[in-house]
Amino acid sequence: MTNKTEPEENPIQETINDKESRGGSHEITYECHTRGQSLSEIAKERGLTLNTVIGHLIRCDQEGKTVDWSGFVDPEKEKEILDAIESVGLDALKPIKTALPETCSYDDIKIVNHKNDLK
To answer: What is the CA radius of gyration of the chain?
Structure first.
């Protein structure tokens, strides 16, 4: 008689699978954020791009969840981005990126844009 051992259930993985099956991938990203993980840590753990992680957090913010945007972009870099936006406008990201030093990424621009509710 063989004694088959059932695999142990992982309630966290089941919760993740359940949320993803309902289209709640952004909620899983938000949970990672609330645990204090950085954007890059979330992206690596979840197998997502930084752009997707930022998009998830923007969606959560728009749904009324609290997202602390202050820790994502250094205040000096944020000022540079805001100055560039004021100078070239918000019609497209490329002119903003071109007006900035290489240390400012498109992700930084997207975060600053959302954080400051620029349209």
So the answer is: 19
Q: Do both 44 and 81 map to the same domain? A: no
Residue 104: CB atoms within 10 A of its CB come to 20
**27 touches 19 (CB < 8 A):** yes
Mind listing the pLDDT tens digit for each residue in 66-116? 999 988 999 999 999 999 999 999 999 999 999 999 999 999 999 999 999
- Give dist(CA 7, CA 66) in Å, integer: 37
Range of the domain at 53: 12-67
Answer whether residue 3 is part of any domain.
no
Same structural domain for residues 45 and 17?
Answer: yes
CA distance 26 to 15: 13
